[in-house]
Task: inverse folding
């Protein structure tokens, strides 16, 4: 596992390193410079990112949230103090674990595990949602194509669907692809 530790303080980063010392097969990368952070993380390609921000200003916190949004990785963020607005912003930014005043070597491993599990669960939910939206869009296209066939050829709904299904089987395509072609052709012919 590749772990990026982002901390401008080498002393605080060493606490995280100490907490991860028991992990086998683990590569640790400490990044202490904020400038070019996203590019540096891109070079490292970590499996998880641990950010220790201490007591950041509002601007610094927002900068790290922007990095979090772009990463698409499990992220655990450590801060000394927080407020409701910062916690809400961290959730919006995709931070998997937002830990207030909890930087201690013994807590690092459980927090890391939690961040990975939360990230994976959230990713599955996002995939399920994208899949459901895709299926809904396909269903809407199929319904639109059926209406086009029903109106243009005077077919009843079951027959229109059967025609699309037959074309899909004959062409080795999905019904949704055939429906998309019907809708596109209809729109090109000025029917849309």
Result:
């Amino acid at each position: 596992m590749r772990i990026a530790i982002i901390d401008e303080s080498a002393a605080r980063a060493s606490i995280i390193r100490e907490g991860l010392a028991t992990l086998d097969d683990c590569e640790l990368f400490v990044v202490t410079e904020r400038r070019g952070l996203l590019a540096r993380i891109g070079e490292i390609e970590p499996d998880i990112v641990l950010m220790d921000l201490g007591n950041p200003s509002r601007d610094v916190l927002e900068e790290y949230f922007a990095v979090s949004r772009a990463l698409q990785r499990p992220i655990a963020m450590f801060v000394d103090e927080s407020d409701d607005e910062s916690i809400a912003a961290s959730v919006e930014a995709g931070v998997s674990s937002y830990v207030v005043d909890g930087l201690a070597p013994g807590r690092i491993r459980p927090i890391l595990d939690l961040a990975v599990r939360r990230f994976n669960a959230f990713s599955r939910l996002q995939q399920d949602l994208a899949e459901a939206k895709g299926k809904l869009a396909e269903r809407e296209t199929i319904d639109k194509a059926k209406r086009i066939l029903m109106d243009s050829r005077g077919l009843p709904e079951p027959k229109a669907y059967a025609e699309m299904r037959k074309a899909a089987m004959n062409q080795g395509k999905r019904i949704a692809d055939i429906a998309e072609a019907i809708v596109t052709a209809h729109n090109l012919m000025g029917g849309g």
